């Protein structure tokens, strides 16, 4: 196998799988543990949101620091921090969970940027979208069994939680510490590029650059919906007669994995804006949220159909936008601007818990997911762009 499926890249994808295994368990355990301790939805949302809010804060600097000091050196330090965070979960309560989520956020900012920048730089343009899709795919594979494992831990006793977290920390650290990267993939930035990357000036590009602005808004709103789903589904499912959060999250993750693998060659990789493709993706997002909202009345069929629709939307949105930006952003500060874009995804997931938690407290989970569906409809309109500069022929899927 060659290109995005060659052994060096498969090794990186396996490291991604190990790294994100812990989070697939934590997204179920933390809300359930918080609910058992009497925490409000607002508190649970803040704890869950702290992870990606911290990631968002550090992400724009990650690409610059990684290129200055080298991916492998940074990766090894990050894996130590991540291991400490996972162990912290096993010896603390909700307050410690907040600190651990923030430490995980710092680790993820550098970990994901190192791998994604390496994939983008190492692969030829025609394989770029496949590489990004496969990276995202392996980050979601743990979500297939993680939620069910989490429910098993919750029902069987939290003493198993400590064993699992420590085991993941050790295996990820050992596997990641032995990772290697070709010199061609780890070259430091040149003096000219270093001068061109002005971090604070780059923040203005979120508004000034039309490509970055459109992609960031779509990613931000889409991630708010994904975040609300992830954080509150374990609690919402308990209100349903035949709802099971583990099955929902497993089904959504499996859909993401299958969709990203089977549709990876269909994701546009030509640097053009495909309005119909993006509008269709946001339609799936809106329908998925609406099905989840209606399921409290319509039954579990709508609940699980919503998981599939949400999974397909999640599979397509991130790699499509990331690939598009990798073509249209200026080469001189592309890594920093990509970091800002990915930070919008992190911010969205964080806000999905922080903003939607109080709405669920004031009204209901169903109403909160209804609002998510409305946001998806608004983004369908926002994704349309009739300017010829951005429009290309979209492949059918």
From TrEMBL:
GO terms for cellular component: plasma membrane. Keywords: Membrane, Transmembrane, Transmembrane helix, Transport. It is a multi-pass membrane protein. Its main location: membrane. Pfam families: MFS_1. The chain crosses the membrane at residues 12-32, 44-62, 74-92, 98-120, 132-154, 160-179, 217-237, 243-263, 275-296, 302-329, 336-356, 362-384. One of its GO terms (molecular function) is transmembrane transporter activity. It is found in: Cell membrane. The keyword Membrane applies. Residues 211-397 form the Major facilitator superfamily (MFS) profile domain. It comes from the Bacteria. InterPro entries: MFS, MFS_dom, MFS_Exporter, MFS_trans_sf. This is MFS transporter. It comes from Metabacillus arenae.
